[in-house]
Specification:
It is a single chain. The protein has nine helices and five strands. It has 199 residues and is α+β, with helices and mostly antiparallel strands. It has three domains: 64 residues, OB fold (Dihydrolipoamide Acetyltransferase, E2P) (Beta Barrel), CATH 2.40.50; 72 residues, 5' to 3' exonuclease, C-terminal subdomain (DNA polymerase, domain 1, Orthogonal Bundle); 49 residues, Helicase, Ruva Protein, domain 3, CATH 1.10.8. The relative contact order is 0.09. About 5% of the residues have low confidence.
Length: 199
């Protein structure tokens, strides 16, 4: 029904924003990622998802979710397609990690990073990887930076860093940043060298 809403920001906090448009005030739930990108601005364009809450096969309320860019909205839709992942959980995940970092964690099967997010347990993290990994690795049309081929390079670089004596969690964090900065064409050598500059 709606693709985006654009207008003056009437009210903003880390979980919700009110956008004025054509005499109406649209309240949308947002992630911390979106909050950080639009705070300090007088106007904003939010890419939105309008969802209906249904009880007894009848819609009883509408909820608007807003995102600073289409990639974040796409990730929200991907996450909520997973069994057991609701709207609030997906927003919490997007508040904890950038969309590209979430994509990388899923593509690389990084269950440890996913379950470090509040509300995501071991089984939930495994289910997210199981249901979304192949979809993300096979589609360049996703728009997200982490595509097929990155998984192997990331894993090889992580293995090398842990062999050098770095803790896995620290190595993963460094590799996430480097992967995001260098993009999907980074070689194993580039990933390792740039990660070592951070570690």
């Amino acid at each position: 029904m709606y693709d985006f809403i654009e207008g003056p920001i009437e009210s903003l906090n880390p979980t919700h924003v009110i956008i004025s448009n054509q005499g109406l005030g649209y309240i949308a739930a947002i992630s911390l990622t979106t909050y950080e990108k639009i705070k300090g601005h007088k106007t904003a364009r939010l890419f939105v998802d309008l969802l209906f809450k249904v009880e007894n096969q009848s819609p009883v309320s509408m909820h608007l979710f807003g995102f600073s860019d289409p990639d974040e909205r796409h990730m929200f839709r991907m996450l909520t397609s997973v069994s057991g992942v609701g709207n609030n959980t997906a927003m919490l995940m997007l508040s904890s990690l950038e969309p590209d970092d979430l994509a990388a964690a899923i593509v690389n099967g990084n269950v440890g990073l996913l379950k470090s997010i509040k509300g995501i347990g071991e089984k939930g993290a495994q289910r997210i990887v199981l249901e979304l990994r192949d979809k993300m690795m096979g589609k360049k049309s996703m728009g997200l930076g982490m595509l097929s081929g990155v998984s192997d390079n990331f894993s090889e670089a992580l293995s090398a860093l842990t062999t050098l004596g770095y803790q896995k969690a620290n190595a993963e964090k460094a590799l996430m940043k480097v992967s995001k900065d260098l993009g999907g064409t980074a070689t194993i050598e580039e990933l390792i060298k740039n990660s070592l500059k951070i570690l």
